[in-house]
TrEMBL record, chains A, B:
Location of the FAD-binding domain: 9-365
The protein, known as: Phenol 2-monooxygenase
GO MF term list: FAD binding; oxidoreductase activity, acting on paired donors, with incorporation or reduction of molecular oxygen, NAD(P)H as one donor, and incorporation of one atom of oxygen
Family statement: Belongs to the PheA/TfdB FAD monooxygenase family.
Any Pfam family the entry gives: Phe_hydrox_dim
Annotated SUPFAM superfamilies: FAD-linked reductases, C-terminal domain, FAD/NAD(P)-binding domain, Thioredoxin-like
Domain spans labelled Phenol hydroxylase-like C-terminal dimerisation: 414-625
Membrane-spanning residues: 7-31
Region feature Disordered, mapped onto this chain: 629-650
Organism domain of life: Eukaryota
Amino acid sequence: MKKEIPLYDIVIVGAGPVGLLLSVSLSRWGYKVRHIDNRPVPTATGRADGIQPRTLEMLKNMKLKSKILAYDPARVFEVAFWDPAPGEKIVRTGTWASCPEFLDARYPYTALLHQGLIERVLIEDLEKNGTKVQRPWTITRFETNHVNPDYPVEVDLKNLDSNVTDTVRAKYLYSGEGARSFVRDQLGIKIRHKDPISHVWGVMDGVVRTNFPDIKMKCTIHSDHGSIMVIPRENNMVRLYIQIASSTDPDFSPRKTATVEEVQTAAKRIFQPYYCDWDRVEWYSVYPIGQGIADKYTLDHRVFMGGDVCHTHSPKAGQGMNTAFHDAVNFAWKMHLVESGFANRDILSTYEVERRFIAETLLNFDNKYAALFSQRQPTASEVSDAHKHDAGETENEFVKMFKASCEFTAGFGVAYNGNIFNHGPEHPFQHPLIITGSPQLRPGRIMPPSNVTRVVDANVVHLENEIPYNGAFRLFIYAGLKQSPKKGQHQALLDLATGLTGPNSFYTRFASAHRKLDNHHDMDNPHSSFFSLCLTMAAKRPEIEISDLPALFQDYAGRVYADDRKDMRVPNAPASAHAKMGLKEGEGAVVVVRPDGHVGVAVRLVEGPGTVEALEGYFQGFTVPEGKAVTKSPSSSGLGGGSEHVKAQL
Amino acid sequence: MKKEIPLYDIVIVGAGPVGLLLSVSLSRWGYKVRHIDNRPVPTATGRADGIQPRTLEMLKNMKLKSKILAYDPARVFEVAFWDPAPGEKIVRTGTWASCPEFLDARYPYTALLHQGLIERVLIEDLEKNGTKVQRPWTITRFETNHVNPDYPVEVDLKNLDSNVTDTVRAKYLYSGEGARSFVRDQLGIKIRHKDPISHVWGVMDGVVRTNFPDIKMKCTIHSDHGSIMVIPRENNMVRLYIQIASSTDPDFSPRKTATVEEVQTAAKRIFQPYYCDWDRVEWYSVYPIGQGIADKYTLDHRVFMGGDVCHTHSPKAGQGMNTAFHDAVNFAWKMHLVESGFANRDILSTYEVERRFIAETLLNFDNKYAALFSQRQPTASEVSDAHKHDAGETENEFVKMFKASCEFTAGFGVAYNGNIFNHGPEHPFQHPLIITGSPQLRPGRIMPPSNVTRVVDANVVHLENEIPYNGAFRLFIYAGLKQSPKKGQHQALLDLATGLTGPNSFYTRFASAHRKLDNHHDMDNPHSSFFSLCLTMAAKRPEIEISDLPALFQDYAGRVYADDRKDMRVPNAPASAHAKMGLKEGEGAVVVVRPDGHVGVAVRLVEGPGTVEALEGYFQGFTVPEGKAVTKSPSSSGLGGGSEHVKAQL
């Protein structure tokens, strides 16, 4: 009797940050995930710990932020610099904001807690959605073949306890194995080292008692006895990073190590004249690290990799877990849009293009960042210049670089280049209504945050988070001020609704098969699981009657907003959410935001068919052409009402 | 063999809001609690549901707010009024903020979710601290006698499943049994009815589908077919209150009832011309309710009562659970301060005085509130006047009353009268440095919220929440601007520290026996479990060096703040937290805040011994005189390092 081979949408190898967030995403969207990890238990403590401001926003959008903050992470608002002073002392030479005011961040701090707690939140979420990480399992073989064209990846798995083996087939294989990757090795993909210098780092988490005044701040301490980086942690802990060896040392060995006591003794010497004793050590590790980047993230668009498999760098800037999270999200929505019959398969190539570009930027930054710390210390006046909201002509090279660094480390510098998703001058489709050159609405970047009042319940809300992370494209419609929003007189809005709901529009083509059924309580996807709409009117809440709006928007009653909140960043704007998007009084727009929160394209909202024409052209760039739409749902049916998508027959 | 009688600090009867929050407080502070409830399981759904802005602040201070908000309650920001219109219709005649801008609230909304979820959060918290609610147990007898003078209350308990009985002794018995109370009946305490009119209410929780536009808002709907109150709830639910009978009806019976279908039919008629259908009904109840208040909350200061045992009123204003919570907190800290040897036993009389006064205010308000809704509808212009921050001379009687109502329903109108805790002109101790007549620092009221920067880690924090709810008096020290905060030149601060740490000061007298032991990581109570200090300097964060401060404040390193944040309410103030307390530039103060967040007294901070003299006089009003201090800890030892308090020998 032939054993039936189990079929999965995806096999995910590794349950670190990248594997877990990918698993969370796909499990939420109803995919059948086989997820393994070769460690017998999840991370207990230590390892990565920094969640950057932009990552916090993304976790908020996924409704995971409050669960992570419930563990009371340390919050870093400022970084302090300490330098050698006469008499074998150290002295504070400056402090600066880790996410300065010129960055428009919801959460202008880095949250620090150990990776195990973060993993716990993600594991709970994916278990709630029916996926369980199997441990300790490893991957022993994989190949892409044509035995079953729907599930082209064949994978051999093995339980490291029982030695039981299992062969499965999947649509995709994703490696989040970390720096040492079986999958990458098997594919023969090389790691390229950007910087020939590598280092051995010691890292120690523990509770110290000290009179060093900045022990609750992130600090870089340079002393005549060596350097150390201090990072506050949850539960009164502190993390110390200490460089144990560098390949520039004459006797360098990547195997060089140091005991706990040696590191503590070194730290005591660096902290002088302050004392520093240990109550307890929670975690200690020594590891060599080089800067490396994988040549490819995939060879065949079936077997993919992300996270530390593809890029390694120093832990100094706290970017590792953040970059891994964004790798996972970037892959998740693209795979989803292909597998659910919305987008052409070739969009998968943008995963490597976008994420490898960010990894390269990260490595370049890592070099510069290291130099910034080790070569030249900023003066107090340079630091104070950098903090000004509008530094103007006083900016020197250092300040400029610092600004760019802050934006990057906070996560707001992630800017994808133009491609089929991120509209730009090289995009094959052009239209006069597409907004170009706006500093606020830059395709490839995230949109600025804004507060608005939800009409239906008068709640003050974060507009950018009103559409949750649900795999859909987001159409943020700014109605402008041209006409009274009352009594259906807003012709541009009426024309937009007419165009979107027209028989052949991109919006109608991907309407859910169930869309004529019950959508009364579904404010996110009443018509299509591929689109979520948000309508923001430049009016006061009591002036807006949802029953006067075109029928399309009445189905989104819970996603209609009044732009009537004051914003300190645009204090004189009559409609601050419009103003923050760079829309002048009277101007309306439709901002298309990708499922990961990055702007795709922004189109002016005008009377007539032009606005929808421009949107149509953009979506035709990557959606499945008419007649080719996949008519089946993802293999699991966990999606609820809107899970099956067919070409609607209208 | 004689059976040993179990001894408890307190027996709590009833696990509704008042009993649970009392149990949470005392369990956290290490008391041995016997807690019973006669229901076999906790509340499953329905019942009380409204958490008012001030209660949210209190729950935040207890670190319970985020756990409650994790259940995603509905948030009410505005109230809408609907009135009859020609043609058997209803029409919206106005809306207003439920917590208008003139109230300086951190959380300007009412959170709505069913009592069971709120109870779950409290039950988890008390179980974490070693108390378990026993069910189904009831109280069958109690008496206060002298068999064991340390545990004067003898209580018979009975398990309603097994009929097992148990006799225990306790220091206190607290009844949170609800409107029908065995304890109250046994004590022969009468309920007095303020208003002779009583009503029968129907209340229904469920999911409706309707085109009524304000179904997500709190609404009062008057129609020609009757009246209804709409309250949005968690999980897409809505609560409808409908008055079924009134004692003013000619055929009134308190036993009058109505079926689910009858109420639904009545609602459909009232909602016309909007449709209203039910997806499901989650909870339905009909209950007669009258306004009543107990004559006494205790007879002997050993057996106490609170919550619905002492006061009942209409559910309209959503005050029930909130008042119960404040009853619990008010009793908890007073019992704690007596039992831990800090305060004289006679302070327990202030529990009834303070809380019965609030209950009376609530009942008076309840009458007026009902009249406000049923007699006269506000015009749109009246409503809009009331919303202005500074309404000036356009205020009419109605607007004034509305303002007062908002303050009260939001919880900010709770103002305890002058007594031994709340300094005022009738207080036996007077001192010229005591601040009088300040609109911001009114003894008996809570202090205004403010944002400051914590020096030690540069975190922007809510100053009023920096000292958690830990049973201690809070000394908020505002250093003023008179001198540079650097280099120890602040003489007034130095004199304050010297005075507080002097050998016979109130602060030193109640120093913890363990205070010379390890206080390195205890920022809340490094010296004494009865006092927590917060020092706010009118300076920028980098200007403040904690090592330059008097030693007292160095032990509170984590409780030193820079008053360097902008506040929209005092945009031009050089130090906004100072300004929000009514302190002019250069003025300093010590604001004594009771363990429940209400201001006790505010004293000017000046050079010399005067400030500490004034504080000493205030605390001598209720602290145990020298030589009488209790030398033992609460019977359980769950308090950690600072749990035992002895008279320090200095």
